[in-house]
Amino acid sequence: MLVSNLGGALRSVAEARRAPAMRAYMRDQFEFLGVPTPQRRSACKPLLQTMRAASPEQLLQLATQLWAETEREYQYVAIDLLALHWKRFDASHLPALLALAQQKSWWDSVDGLISVIGDILRHQHQGMDGAIGHDNFWVRRIALLHQLGWRGHTDTGRLFGYALQCAHEQEFFIQKAIGWALRDYARHDPQAIRRFTAAHRQQLAPLSYREACKHL
């Protein structure tokens, strides 16, 4: 019932003329209703807030049901749901979140889940040492980026170790993630990133190196 209600809320603010451009931006991989982000959040948040008393398992079940819907906005609503109720989750729910990341995967859904996972882990790293060796590169991207915004709480051993572990990969989204993770930490400790990139310039892909040093 809630999925149906959320669908009605989305359709009530959909702008069909926007859908082709939104689909094209995602390389025509997904269908869209044509709902901009502010309107989506405004229309759906009251319904998502009704899940305050739901268990983590119920929240994950609803997220999974939303993920199964055709239009991309439903996956965005699922991420909104998880982000709104992230305090209900802990590391034991990580496998379910990583499973979602491997379905209908693209940078928009995966990066949304990275933010949720980073909040849930709260400066811990359960599951990430396994994720960095996963055969799905989107899961490896999550491991590379799960510390975004942690600043002084960043585990630099993992930050640099994960970057070097994946530095040989040709996948654009991995190379970009390495650079993004390093650039983010550079805001806290630019000297550490200068030293790391200088020492490992030959190992890092040019894209990763450029992204890491962009604001140094």
Q: How would you sum up this structure, described in words?
A:
This protein is mostly helical. Helix content is 63%, strand content 0%. α4 (56-67) packs antiparallel against α5. It is globular. It starts with a helix and ends with a helix. The mean pLDDT is 98.
Shape: globular
**Number of beta-strand segments:** 0
The SSE string, one letter per element, is: HHHHHHHHHHHHH
Whole-angstrom Rg: 18 Å
Number of helices: 13
Topology:
Blueprint: H1 2-13, H2 19-25, H3 37-49, H4 56-67, H5 72-84, H6 94-101, H7 107-121, H8 128-131, H9 137-145, H10 156-166, H11 172-186, H12 190-199, H13 206-213
Helix pairs in contact: 1-3, 3-5, 4-5, 5-7, 6-7, 7-9, 9-11, 10-11, 11-12, 11-13
List keywords for this structure.
13 helices, mainly alpha, 216 residues, globular, single chain
Q: What can be said about this structure in brief?
A:
Helix content is 63%, strand content 0%.
